[in-house]
Specification:
- The chain is of the alpha/beta class and 397 residues long.
- It has 9 helices and 17 strands.
- It has a domain of 150 residues: 3-Layer(bba) Sandwich (FAD/NAD(P)-binding domain), CATH 3.50.50.
- 27% of the residues lie in helices and 31% in strands.
- The strands form 3 sheets. Strands 1, 2, 8, 9, 10, 11 and 17 form a 7-stranded mixed β-sheet that branches. The chain has a 7-stranded mixed β-sheet with strand order 6-5-13-14-15-12-16, sandwiched between helices.
- A hairpin with a 5-residue loop joins strand 10 and strand 11.
- The longest helix has 16 residues.
């Protein structure tokens, strides 16, 4: 049984980000940490290639492996009105999971030991935890570590007042004629047919005049079947965007829980949760990558200072409270989601909205952003959230 300072379960965005950040630190009294990174073996079920998007001020640590970036964003209202704005000094960035993974793995030094095995159990202890796993051939492996960080998705969302699902399918399309402005990302196109409760929108990230990632997204309780996504994308690309003839080079699909449930990040004396399982996802948007980076940075600072590295929830309490109200109002059908998001961007500086959605805004700006919401239905919903019970919510993934 091998012993490590840190053991990371899972090699997605959270696990690899932590391995990348922790590999170069110095632990008080110990020196460079011995790190184990364990992930399922080849052939085991795992997510396919994904696209992560985020925004940040100026240069960032992942700029050299970005697939694309945009300094101008646009939003289309249900009536077709277009709100477009340059967001400098911020940039909206696209990162492909495969490029991120290759970059991080290439930089992991000899103190990071990688294991291909499926974790079957984690035993917590007073001063270390033991991780039990099974290799592809069925042989067992057990590893111990002073700190274990588990980034695996939770089997189900936690008990909550409201749980919606952000579910989507996207096509990487190549058109026969120029159809896109490569300098502008279309963040929300609300000209799609709207569900009775929740919201739907299109999303266009142009890579050139003839190439783009085009997605159809819903915030609802239930996912669509294959025919539903295909039909929605066909209507969006043909009737809304008017792309004409195009080919689909690749596709991606995903489901992200949007919940106001609580995510405890400490699972034991020596075991912690990070990433989406540790509350890194912003409930009202589904964006996770930026939250992961803030969470990882906090963990690394604690390790360097010799403190217990409990991962923080990377979102302010008032933002989580506001998200809870928005989710509830959407789910109850009290809030016209398409109209709300259109007003949010039309009435505010887009940079301020991005700061709000990323949790970087101050209280005064939050109040101005919140003014885009209708007063009566949101007030009723806020009271309902304040006095309602927290219970398991059933959604169909």
């Amino acid at each position: 049984m091998r012993g490590f300072d840190l053991l990371i379960v899972g090699a997605g965005a959270a696990g690899l980000s932590l391995a990348h950040a922790a590999a170069g630190i110095v632990l008080p009294g110990t020196g460079t940490p011995r790190i184990a990174l364990i992930e399922p073996p080849a052939g085991a079920p795992r997510p396919g290639d994904r696209t992560w998007c985020f925004w940040e001020h100026g240069a960032g640590p992942w700029d050299e492996v970005l697939a694309a970036r945009w300094d101008t964003l646009a939003v289309r209202s249900p009536t077709g009105a277009r709100h477009e704005q340059a967001i400098s000094p911020q940039s909206y960035k696209m990162l492909r999971s495969r490029d991120f993974e290759d970059h991080v793995r290439a930089g992991l030094g000899p103190d990071v030991h990688q294991y291909a095995a499926t974790v079957t159990a984690i035993e917590d202890g007073a001063d270390h935890a033991t991780v039990h796993a099974s290799r592809a051939d069925g042989s067992p492996v057990s590893l111990t570590a002073r700190r274990v960080f588990d980034s695996r998705p939770l089997p189900a969302p936690p008990p909550a007042r409201t749980t919606l699902l952000q579910h989507f399918r996207g096509w990487f399309v190549h058109t026969e004629h120029d159809a896109f402005d490569p300098g502008t990302a279309l963040l929300m196109d609300l000209r799609t047919a709207q569900p009775r409760r929740g919201v739907s929108f299109g999303y266009v990230l142009p890579l050139s005049c003839r190439e783009a990632l085009v997605e159809y997204t819903e915030f609802t309780r239930r996912v669509l079947d294959d025919a539903g996504y295909e039909s929605a994308l066909r209507r969006y690309t043909a009737e809304v965007l008017g792309l004409g003839r195009f080919t689909v080079a690749a596709a991606e699909q995903g489901v992200i829980p949007m919940t106001d449930g609580s995510f405890p990040t400490r699972a034991g004396r020596c075991v912690f949760r990070i990433g989406a399982a540790g509350g890194a996802t912003r409930p009202s948007t589904g964006y996770t990558f930026s939250g992961i980076q803030r969470q990882v940075a906090s963990v690394v600072r604690s390790l360097e200072r010799g403190r217990v590295p409990v991962p923080p929830i990377p979102h302010k309490r008032r933002h989580l409270a506001m998200d809870s109200v928005v989710l509830r109002a959407l789910d109850r059908g009290r809030l016209d989601g398409a109209a709300f998001f259109a007003r949010l961007f039309a009435r505010n500086d887009m940079r301020a909205v991005l700061d709000f959605l990323d949790g970087r805004s101050v209280l005064g700006r939050d109040l101005l952003v919140g003014a885009a919401a209708p007063v009566v239905p949101m007030s009723v919903t806020a009271l309902e959230c304040a006095f309602g019970s927290v219970r398991p919510e059933r959604s169909t993934p």
